[in-house]
Amino acid sequence: KAGVTQTPRYLIKTRGQQVTLSCSPISGHRSVSWYQQTPGQGLQFLFEYFSETQRNKGNFPGRFSGRQFSNSRSEMNVSTLELGDSALYLCASSFSLDTGELFFGEGSRLTVL
Amino acid sequence: DQQVKQNSPSLSVQEGRISILNCDYTNSMFDYFLWYKKYPAEGPTFLISISSIKDKNEDGRFTVFLNKSAKHLSLHIVPSQPGDSAVYFCAASPRKNDMRFGAGTRLTVKP
User: Fold this and answer.
1) How many Å lie between the alpha carbon of B2 and the closest alpha carbon of chain A?
2) Integer Cα distance of A81 and A26 in angstroms
3) Distance (Å, whole) CA B56 – CA B68
4) What are the beta bridge partners of residue B9?
5) Are B91 and B101 in contact (CB under 8 A)?
6) φ, ψ dihedrals at A84, nearest 5°
7) Whole-angstrom distance, CA of residue A104 vs CA of residue A26
8) Per-residue pLDDT of chain A in tens (113 residues, 90 and over written 9)
9) B53 backbone φψ class: left, alpha, beta (φ>0; ψ -120 to 50)
């Protein structure tokens, strides 16, 4: 079955712009979580959605937001981009909130100039 | 607030030898621990997990050890192979959700 799909794979933005990233989970998976990967910081948890509701949130400013649709697809948005937002954004899905193992997409590489 | 720490950013071992990757955590509520492996240009993939009721879990060449009193876990790879060269992330969570990751350790296995 198809894995987790993230679009776009690469994008370049300038400071002050906003960006929307999309994630399609594995069919049947209802939980989607987002992570930011930067060198030295590893994978930092952004937020987790289940059944269109945000269930957990990491320690990121309000410029980072997300949502989940009824088909479990998820989007995350970053407004007023800063240089430090340049990172690989990874989406992961799981069947439910407490199944443990996450299935990751290949990520969206954002560069902010 | 780094609740999961991997203090070694990189590790280099010879093919056939043992690789030991370490991970420390601070949150005593964590009761489920996982290791993920990440190759360049790919998302992380699940490798092995352990729950807090165990102190060891083995899967082929990969063994994870958990020391709850020290809040420490380690991943042993024996024997190491060049294909094991990747970044390894340690992850921990309470009740299998709200997973927190370490910064990763880049393992290089030299032929």
Assistant:
1) 9
2) 29
3) 11
4) none
5) yes
6) -70, -5
7) 10
8) 579 999 999 999 999 999 999 999 999 999 999 999 987 677 888 999 999 999 888 889 999 999 999 999 999 999 999 999 999 999 999 887 666 788 999 999 999 99
9) alpha
Residue of chain B whose alpha carbon sits nearest to that of A31: B97
Distance from CA of B111 to the nearest CA of A (A): 26
Q: Beta-carbon neighbour count of residue B51 at 10 Å?
A: 12
The residue count of chain A comes to 113
- A44 contacts B43? CB cut-off 8 A: no
Long-range contacts of A11-14 (CB under 8 A, 24+ apart): A11/A108, A11/A109, A11/A110, A11/A111, A12/A110, A12/A111, A12/A112, A12/A113, A13/A81, A13/A110, A13/A111, A13/A112, A13/A113, A14/A81, A14/A112, A14/A113
- In the block, tokens 């969206």 appear at A108
Q: Is the separation of the CB atoms in B6 and B21 below 8 Å?
A: yes
Is residue B89 within 8 Å of residue B102, measured between CB atoms? yes
Q: Which amino acid is at A68?
A: Q
CB contact under 8 A, A59 and B100: no
Look up residue B44 and give its amino acid.
P
